[in-house]
Write a structure and sequence with these properties.
Blueprint: H1 3-19, H2 24-28, H3 31-42, H4 46-70, H5 82-91
Helix pairs in contact: 1-3
């Protein structure tokens, strides 16, 4: 494992230790950016940390709700293609 990958893995572990989970949003950041910026983000005040914990729990609730609805989605039938219909009528 490269030095950069180890730094990224250590950063993810520290984020998880701090928040109890790694927010999905943080996984979207480029590895180098997250490793570089995490120490300053970690120094946020207690109120901000509570906001992050709340948002994390909200993310989990939304993911759960979405996964429950995935089985209830009815696929839409494809829209008719007027050109294909016209070609079928011409060939008949």
């Amino acid at each position: 494992m490269t030095k950069e990958m180890l730094a990224y893995e250590d950063t993810l572990k520290d984020i998880e230790k701090t928040f109890g989970a790694v927010p999905g949003l943080m996984k979207l950041f480029p590895d180098e950016k997250l490793v570089h910026d995490w120490p300053s983000w970690k120094r946020m005040g207690e109120i901000d940390m509570e906001r992050v914990r709340f948002l994390l729990s909200t993310d989990e609730m939304i993911e759960e709700m979405l996964s429950e609805t995935q089985g209830n989605i009815v696929p839409m039938s494809p829209k008719p293609d007027p050109a294909a219909e016209a070609a079928q009528e011409d060939s008949a």
